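pasting for ref
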Amino acid sequence: MADQQRRSRRGSGGARWLSGQPWQPAEAGALGLHWLWGRGRRRFRHLLAVRRGAQVTADFAARVLEWFEHHGRRHLPWQHGVTAYRVWVSEIMLQQTQVATVIPYFERFMRRFPTVEILAEAPLDEVLHHWSGLGYYARARNLHRAAQQVCARFGGEFPRDLQVLQTLPGIGRSTAAAVLSLAHGQRETILDGNVKRVIARCFAVPGWPGSSQVMAHLWTIAESLTPSQRVAQYNQAMMDLGA
């Protein structure tokens, strides 16, 4: 549930999907990606040539990274002094909350709780006080509980195993992947609301992304597109594209 509360849950589609069939990269060519993005969406034009053949996976990642070089966001506060802790806090705050709103909260939160140990030792009431105004207070409670477990179970170090990281309160598959890829460069696939939007439109996946069938399609596509190099930049670019 944690990752279904990301910035946006709205999916898109319209072209016919090969219902029930595994996704194949070559299918992208038949879908006419230029139609999916509509007119005037300049930030997506780098992706439009990814339209045919088995090279779609490599071409897609290359074009996303090319777009990121020119247009990606690199000055967000959690992108400096990157640690698993800072990435994790930012990812939790960004669930159902816009970046512009999160920035001042993140900066204040880091001033008061600069490490996972300090957060774990703080009273819950104080954590909730610093969260006041962001809403969805279960996120703050889970953040506090997870910090305590990181300290108690892992000696203050976030585990680098995707499955183990998901055992912490409030951390789902995509959040865990974001922490590992953005903080450590591990090849992990994210599928937050923004990434769902990009993939659903580029590859014409109709239906509500929260349904099990659509989610399975989206994960399959997302995993096949994730490159083996520059994973942190690619994942950040996908989130920026869908924002």
